Structure formats: C-alpha cells, structure tokens
Amino acid sequence: MFENRRGFLLAAIAVITLPLAAQTTSAAPRALRIAAAADLQPVLPDVLARFTADGNIHVDVTYQSSATLATQIMNGAPFDLFLAADLSFPQRVIAATLAEEAQPITYARGTLVLWTRNDSRFKNLSMDSLRDPDLKSLAVANAEHAPYGRAAQAALKHLGLYQQVESKLVIAENIAQTAQYVESGNAELGLISLTSALTPRLKVSGHCVVVPQDAYPPILQGAVIVKRAGANSADAHRFLDFLMSAPIQSQLADRGLAPAK
Amino acid sequence: MDLQALALTLRLAVVTTALLLVIAVPVAYWIAFSGSRLRALVEAVSTLPLLLPPTVLGFYLLVLLGPRTPFGRAWIQLTGHPLAFSFTGLVVGSVIYSFPFAVQPLVAGFSGVDTALLEQARLLGASRLRLLRAVLLPLTARSVLTAAVLCFTHTVGEFGVVLMIGGDIPGATRTLSISIYDQVQDFAYTQANRTALVLVVISVAALVLLYSRRRHGLSEARHG
Amino acid sequence: MVEGTILRADVRYGRGAFVLEARFELRSDWTVLFGPSGAGKTTLLRIVSGLIAPDRGRISLEQRVLVDTDTRLSVAPGRRGIGFVTQQAALFPHLTAQANVAFGLQSLTDDRLEARVGEMLQLFDAESLADRKPDRLSGGEKQRVALARALAPQPALLLLDEPFAALDAAARSAIAESLRASGVPVLYVSHDLADAWQMNVDAIVLEAGRIEAQGPARDVLAPYRERVLEQLGMERSVRA
After folding, report:
1. In what helix (H) or strand (E) does residue C214 lie, and over which residues does it extend?
2. Into how many domains does chain B fold?
3. How far is CA C93 from CA A218, A256, C96, C186, in A?
4. Contact at 8 Å (CB) between C217 and C38?
5. Which of B194, B224, C120, C184 could pair with C148 in a Cys bridge, judged by C-beta atoms 3.0 to 4.6 Å apart?
C-alpha cells in the first residue's frame, strides 16, 4: 500500500514535471503499463511490490476481463504488457500484429475448484455434491468468453454432469463475479478459480475441492508484449522474465496459480 | 437476434414501469404535499440509486437479497429459491434502480398543480384517492407519461444491476443489454450491432412518443 | 330567511407578528366581512371552511360543532356543509363546466346528479356553458360556474372571498340575485363599503386580527362614512 502510494506520488510528480524538464528526466522512475486478467487481481500486487522495490520503476495495472483488455489493446489502448487468463485472447492480439511474439508466452496455469460456504448444507463437499438432486444453483463463469467458464463447462461434460446441472447454472460474466455469486450465498455451489478460493476472505468463509485436472483442458494463461509506438518494451520484457523466475513462480503457486511448465 | 432476450427485456420494462408508477405515485404525493420534516430525507434517499454506480448497486442488492440477510432468508423460506437469478429478482432490482426516474417527474408535476384546485377538491368532499384520480393525475398526465417513458427506457437499457444479480439465464434474466455485452465479449460485433440497433429503435420510439405527446399537450395548454 | 344563529365562532390562530382572535356570530343570511387588507379576513374564512385549523377555539354551524380544540374535534372540510368560492374561481381545468358542478355530488344517483347540475347551471344562467372547459369561459362565467359548483351539494353556509372584485356592477347584481334565490346564507369578504352600505346587510369589521364591530351595516360602518361616500361618489362618476 505504502509502496504503491509513494509510487503514485512519484508518477504524479513525474507527469507534472516531465514536460518542464524534458532534457533531464533520467532521475524519474520509468513507467510500465500492464493489462491484467481479472483473475490476477488477488495475486499480482505482491509480485509487483517485489518488482518495484528498488523504486526505479512504476507500474500501473488495469484489471479487466481478458476479452475487454484484448479489445482495448486492439483499439490502441496504451499498454506495454498483456497478461491474459488464457491463450486465445493473446492470440487475437498477435493476429492483429500488435504483439512482439509469434506465440503467447504461457506464464501460469489456473486451477478450477468447487467452492461452497461453510454455512451451506454441503458439509462433505466433493464432486459428487454436484449430483445432489436438491442442488438449487451452481455458479459458473460464462463459457463463451471466460476461460474458467470454458473449463467449468468442459469439466461438467467430462464428468457426465452437464445435462443434470444445466438448468441450475447461474452464469457470471467473469470468474471474480462467479466467486461473488457463491460467496454471497445466492448460489449454493460455484466452480471458481483456486486463486479466488485462496483469498483471505473466501478462505475464512468457505471451503473447496479441486476439480480433477484431467476433467478439463488446462487453463493456460498467456502473455504478450504489446507492439506500439512508445511502448516500454524493455521493462515489459524485464517484468515477464521476473514473473517466470523460480521464486516468483513458486509464490504464484502458493496463491493458486501453478507453474506454466 | 436474440428474440427471447428481446421479449424478456420488454416484459421486464413493462412490469417494472407499471410497478414503479404504483409505488412512486403515493411517494411523490407524500413528498410534494406533506409538510413533514422527513421530507428532505425521503427525497434524498429516493435519489440515491442515481448516485450509486449500477454494478455497485447490483452488488449490494445481491448481498441484500441473498441468504445472509433476514429478508433474503425469509424470501428463500417462502419461495424455495433466492431472489437473485430470477425474473422477480430483476424486477426488484429494476424498480430500485429506476425509482428516481419515476419519483422525480411526479414530484415536479404534483408540486406544480395550483393548490387552490386541491383545496376546492377537499372542500367538495373528495377523498385522497379521488383527489389523486380525478384531479391530480389528469392534471399531471404529462409528468406521469414522462415518468413512465423514462422508467421504461431506463429499464430497457439497464445493464450493471442485471449483470450483477441476473446470472445470465436465457428466458429469465438474459436481457438485451446482457446479450449485447456477451456478444461484444465474444467479438461477435455484427450480432452485437444488430441487437444494439433493436435496443436503440425501441428507446427512440418510446421517446418520440413522449415528445410528440408533450408538444401536443403544451400547445393545448397555450390555447387556454 | 334564516332564524336564530347560523354560525358561531370563537377562534385564535397564529403567533408572533400576526394573531387572529375572532369571536362572532352570523344571524343574518347575508353578512359582509369587512376590513383592510392584512386584517385576517381570508385567514378567518379558511379557518371556518376547514382549510386551516385554529390553534384554539370552537366553531359550530346550526347546532353542529365543527371544531373544538378542547376535545380535538375537527370535521373535514368536505363534511362541514360549507361552500367556499374565491376570487380565482379555481375551476378544474380538465373538466367541463357541468363536470365541475357535479364534482361535489358523488353520493347522488346519476338521475339526481344530472337534475341538480341542471338546476344549479340554470340558477346562475350558465346552461349554455355546460360543455365548455374553463379555458373557454370569461371571468364572470367562471365565477358563475364556481358558485354553482359550491352550492350544488346544498351547503348550510357559503363563504365568498371577493369573488366579484373583477366583475362590473351589472354582473355583480345578477349574481347577487341568484345567490339570494338559492336561500343559502352567505359570509362575504369585501373591500367595498358601498355594496354593504347600499344593501344594508349585517357587517363584521375585522382589523389587525380582531373584530372591531359587528351589526347592521349602516351602524357598523358609520365611522367609515367618509370612505363610503367617497366610493359611492367614485362609482357614480364612473357610471356617468
């Protein structure tokens, strides 16, 4: 928090004084702008805190659904790095010739969990809870454009449960909203991300079981460096390398994002 | 074109508008005519939905209507399912969301009526209900129409609240605006454009109806 | 002709700069309430009609108590049997003359309602105006319809707050005739001393919220004789 505030202050000062001191800006911190998928919101701030610890760089992050971010980038939004929740959205940016890479860089793998509140009637939560004929509602993310929604749908089909629960599905726009539906108790069960389930709030209020990994295609999260005039490509590369480094990958794993490889 | 979403949107807008008029008329009457000290507070609270971003409003409704509040629990006891993710839940959300759009024009209309007329109605023995039906509402027909059209179009275009409490269920909570959002998220721009066009046509038609009626009404008043 | 006391009122209203303290009785079927502007004439009529409540006091109309602040009794304006017409006729603009007159007759059957409306319009020579809305009526026509509307429910008392101020003398006397024919007692606010003087009715003089005098107009208005003569003179010169 303090770091961010100081960073913000420095950035604000930099923005104000930059035009005045165009010749002598070497002392001001450099700025990096990241477009990050909403499911990174519980994870990324700590990573960034370590990355910006030396005070030489300031990072702005915009959290949105990957679809929205991809649209914004393809319409000229000034981002330097795109951390998506799957591979398809970075591929769209590549197809629009707005990425440095030819293939998205897989930086993490998401895990799907079945979550319920501690005060719900599902005390012994398991995948079989989905077979409960009295199940009223199951929150999932939108399968058309939310990667965890796609995984949830695939898993339900793989486990032969889809037909049974189809009429009970409550569809949220993204994985964060899915967590809200089930955390607020409006939906009885929810297929959410492990990163959401491991946030302090949900850790206290509920419990989860991991959906078998072989039930759905891996949720590979991909990144691309945005190619545009004035992009801070050097720092984008630096941050991506930092993200892929062993200590950070293990930090991500603690928060629910498995290493990419 | 998602016909089911279109039908649902129109149904939601009609039900919401009808309910809002029934609720807002007595509230506006009270705001316009009661000398109560609470009046300013009630008027301020009735404006609150304008202040809150729709998704924030939707989030609070999700929590409020959910099983973690006494009201939500009572509802679930009564009906067996939570208010969220149902058409009824959307109606509740829409009524709250569009409440200021119903109350404000009515308060303005009621306040503009000559008090001498209201006094005559009382002197001639009119009950409050008759005063409303036979004097106030006919004299403020344009305000009522304005309130109705604003509620209708506001509900047709409603997004944030529906997104939060709807659950995107075809035929129950997937409205046109959600449908457009989904289409945009899926990069289905052609479909999205078509749906947006329908949305715009409905809203413009409603507004044209309102404004042509209003001008007519004004010229009538001028002749008098 | 009415016998005995029609209205008995003893009320107090207001505090600070304006206090109305009035105790009076109406015995004649035509009483002028007279006084300078700001004396509280309109306030007094509004209290009697029930549009405002007195802070203290009692009002009774033909033996029936309408207001008694001691027992917290206050009959609603529409149940007092009192009609009230003001200078701004206040006709309902969306209703025809005949629908305006019918407004206070909700309890009647259709036949009797129609008959009563017809009777009232006839009394005020307004049958030809029946289907017109107020925006197509002249000032005098509006007042006639307003009077017909106020008298339609057969009130026991009619309050008039300068309803003829904008009318000429001929129109005024025609309306006065119709009112007398109706037989309903009238309490009539006026600035016009000459009217009261000439008609020699009862008068009440209200000044600064207090009743200064009460009785036959020529006795009560004697102190104002100079102004009466002045007004009479002015009117003659206008006529000439």
Report:
1. strand C210-216
2. 1
3. 73, 72, 8, 26
4. no
5. C120
Give me the pLDDT at residue B214, please: 61
User: Which chains share 3+ C-beta pairs under 8 angstroms with C?
Assistant: B
Q: Does B186 touch chain A (CB under 8 A)?
A: yes
Residues pairing with C211 in the sheet? C206
Query: B208 is in which domain, residue-wise?
Result: 3-223
Q: Which residue of B lies nearest to A69 if distances are taken between CA atoms?
A: B185
Which tens digits make up the pLDDT trace of B20-78? 999 999 999 999 998 888 998 998 998 989 898 898 898 888 888 888 889 888 888 88
Distance, in Å, from the CA atom of C102 to the CA atom of C117, rounded to the nearest integer, reads 6
Task: Return the half-sphere exposure (C-beta side, CA atoms, 13 A cut-off) of residue A49.
Answer: 11
H helix or E strand, kind and range, residue C9: strand C7-13
Q: B16 to chain A nearest CA, in Å?
A: 22
Of A171, A174, A178, A204, which to mutate for an interface test with B (greatest number of B Cβ within 10 Å)?
A: A171
Q: Do domains A30-109+218-259 and A111-215 have the same CATH topology?
A: yes
For domain A30-109+218-259, the CATH architecture is 3-Layer(aba) Sandwich (3.40)
Q: Which of 3.40.190.10, 3.40.1640.10, 3.40.50.1820, 3.40.50.1460 is the CATH number of A111-215?
A: 3.40.190.10
Contact C104 B114 (CB under 8 A): no
Q: Which chains touch B (3 or more CB pairs under 8 A)?
A: A, C
CA C161 to chain centre: 5
Predicted model pTM? 0.78
Domain CATH for B190 = 1.10.3720.10
Q: Return the bridge partners of B140, or none.
A: none
Residues in chain C: 240
Cβ pair C146, C139 in contact under 8 A: no
Output the six-digit token pair for B224. Answer: 């008098």
**Residue A175 touches partner B, C-beta closer than 8 Å:** no
Q: At A211, which helix (H) or strand (E)? A: none
Calpha distance A40→A131 (Å, rounded): 31
Give B-chain residues touching A184 at CB under 8 angstroms: 62-63, 66, 68
**pLDDT, tens only, A48-68:** 999 998 778 889 998 888 888
How many helical (H) and strand (E) elements, i.e. helices and strands, does chain B have?
12, 0
In sequence order, which ranges of C164-204 are alpha helices (DSSP H)?
A: 169-182, 193-199
**Rounded CA gap, C191 and C33, in Å?**
9
ipTM above 0.85, yes or no: yes
**Could you identify the residue written with the tokens 């007004």?**
C231
One DSSP character per residue, B98-135 reads HHHHHHHHHHHHHHTS-HHHHHHHHHTT--HHHIIIII
Q: Which amino acid is at B169?
A: I
Pick B189 or C83 by higher pLDDT: C83
Helices then strands, counting H and E runs in chain A, come out as 11, 10
Give which of B113, B120, B122 to mutate to test C binding, by max C Cβ within 10 Å: B120
Please write the tens of the pLDDT for every residue from A1-14. 444 555 555 455 44
**B168 interfaces chain A, CB cutoff of 8 Å:** yes
Instruction: Please count the CA atoms within 13 angstroms of the CA of C126 that sit on its side-chain side.
Output: 36
Going from N- to C-terminal start, the domains of chain A cover 30-109+218-259, 111-215
Interchain CB contact of B135 with C (< 8 Å): yes
A with B: touching (≥3 Cβ pairs within 8 Å): yes
